[in-house]
């Protein structure tokens, strides 16, 4: 029995998007890919998942067209890196909106450095998810830097 409903055939685009992007692990993996983390071991460590959980999510994401897989080493035991497809990169404004919402409406204790998104076109921090709040440039995976929040405890 499936753990959740299949909404892929629904007429509502929000329902269909949730069918693809609605799993928290999927969003965390996309976050890592947008950050530039592409290797399995690094993604797993950053999202703190098990090998099984990450493997399952990556396969689903490949099937959904969000991620592509490319071998980077090994013949006996191949190693792969995972790259966002255009569909995965198009999720950037969604991820940024979630990050801005979370920063505004949830509490993170003892932050030494808060989350921020910097537009490389102007070098300024932006407060919007699709276009830079300073220069108006469209924000893409190629022209933004995410400043990861850090805590005083070093995590």
TrEMBL record:
Q: What Pfam families does the entry give? A: HxlR (PF01638)
Q: Which SUPFAM superfamilies match?
A: Winged helix' DNA-binding domain
- Domain of life per record: Bacteria
- Residue ranges of domain HTH hxlR-type in the record: 12-110
Q: What GO molecular-function term can you cite, just one?
A: DNA binding
State the UniProt keywords alphabetically.
DNA-binding, Transcription, Transcription regulation
* InterPro entries linked: ArsR-like_HTH (IPR011991), HTH_HxlR (IPR002577), WH-like_DNA-bd_sf (IPR036388), WH_DNA-bd_sf (IPR036390)
Per its UniProt record, what PROSITE patterns does this chain match?
HTH_HXLR
Q: What is this protein called?
A: Putative DNA-binding protein
């Amino acid at each position: 029995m499936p753990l959740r409903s299949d909404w892929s055939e629904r007429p509502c685009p929000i329902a269909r998007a949730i069918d693809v992007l609605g799993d928290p692990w999927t969003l965390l993996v996309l976050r890592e890919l947008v950050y530039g983390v592409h290797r399995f071991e690094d993604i797993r460590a950053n999202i703190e998942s098990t090998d099984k959980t990450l493997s399952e999510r990556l396969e689903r994401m490949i099937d959904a067209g969000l991620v592509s897989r490319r071998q980077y080493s090994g013949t006996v035991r191949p190693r792969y890196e995972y790259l966002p497809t255009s569909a995965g990169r198009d999720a950037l404004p969604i991820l940024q909106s979630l990050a801005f919402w979370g920063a505004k409406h949830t509490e993170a204790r003892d932050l030494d450095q808060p989350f921020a998104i910097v537009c490389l076109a102007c070098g300024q921090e932006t407060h919007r998810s699709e276009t830079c709040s300073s220069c108006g440039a469209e924000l893409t995976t190629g022209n933004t830097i995410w400043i990861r929040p850090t805590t005083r405890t070093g995590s």
